Amino acid sequence: MSRSAGKLWILAIVVVVLFCRAGAWQLDRARQKQAMLAESQKVLAERKPLPLSAASDPARKTAYDWTAGEGRFAPAPALLLDNQSRGDRAGIRVYRVFLPATAAPPLLVELGWLPLPGDRKLPVIQAPSGPLHVAGLLAPPPSPGIAGSQATPQADGNLLAIGLDRAEVADALRMPNLAPRVLKLDPALKFGYARDLDILPNTLPPERHVGYAVQWFGLALAVLVIALVLTLRRRRPRRAAAHEKIPDMNPNSTVPARPDPMQPGPTKPDPARVRRGRWILVLIFLLFFGSIFGAGVLRFSGWQPQGTKVHGEMLQPAIDARAVVPRFADGSDYAWRPAERLWRIVVAPAAGCTAECQKLARDLDTVWQLFGNNADHVEILWAGALPADAPDTQSRRVLLPTPELLAALPRVNDPAGVPIYVIDPNGFVILRYAPGTDPGFIRADVSKLLKLI
To answer: 209 or 233, which is more confident?
Structure first.
């Protein structure tokens, strides 16, 4: 190997190692966030409340717990977290310090999200007054990133920050014993602003990290292929003429005679060079067309990557329910409203459903809250009697189980239990989930559908 080829491969190996490390980091972040989602989903499904003092437990400062308790909000400035989006709108998240009645350390409570106008004029933030009952999800604060918190006092006395670093926030609020975890307030509580229990707002989901990892590994492979192609093209066979002694035309001369410049050189191509050129063409052909051929084989064999599979039964063809006019419990009409791009999760339990429907109502409430910023694009349609202790899900609409609506839901009277359906924004029933399906599967499928809007 020549010196230049050696330098080329050293550079290529360094770049490949860097790209592979970047891809491995993205995969690790995807695993971490998937574990965070699984832990928070389990906590939301069980909702076993701990006292508010759990927020200051140093052993669980990165864990998730459900908590509830009494207390009042401190007469301290509100903390406004900037650069927070909800749907397609920019805004702020409002935090206030809450003082538990049990003399536990104070903690930050996320009251919700507020939009910002084009001139970025901050809204007036009112503090909830009086003794209050709070409940919600204890979670680590949003990562401040490399910029830190940088809480800046505003004209109204509140603090505007671009991150939540516990030490910097405690110093800005003059509360050194501030709990390391924040309380994401239960959306069912009547005070505060628009909110959800999404633990990954304004950040990348696990699926996006996996996509970036694939890109980094693909770049590493491309660098290897380019280095190989350049190495093969730089290798030149030694010409036989360079090693052959030019014949001496003058036997008495000690200096070889110069070849006649008018004499044409050999034109026969070197077979080794021709073979290398052909192999390079084959390699390029496989690189660009082999992936297309492989994708075609996988497509027609019925294989699909894990990220594109659905856990429910894809109805083929979809059931057209556009002509069905669902009715609310008070007899008024429920319109599909395609322009609003709403996805519906529909259940139609039979009369007398008790324990199963209670669990189903809690599971669907958890699923809806985990949609986070996209929760406004999902409605839960409950066709039938609602359990007495069902959570107060903001997006739930209670409908009458009319014969027309039930006819649009295939195999709705399942003896195994209550099936779940997904209806697209136009009114087509596209998915059916068997009774007892893991609610996490429903959330995963609908999250993919939400990316289409």
So the answer is: 209
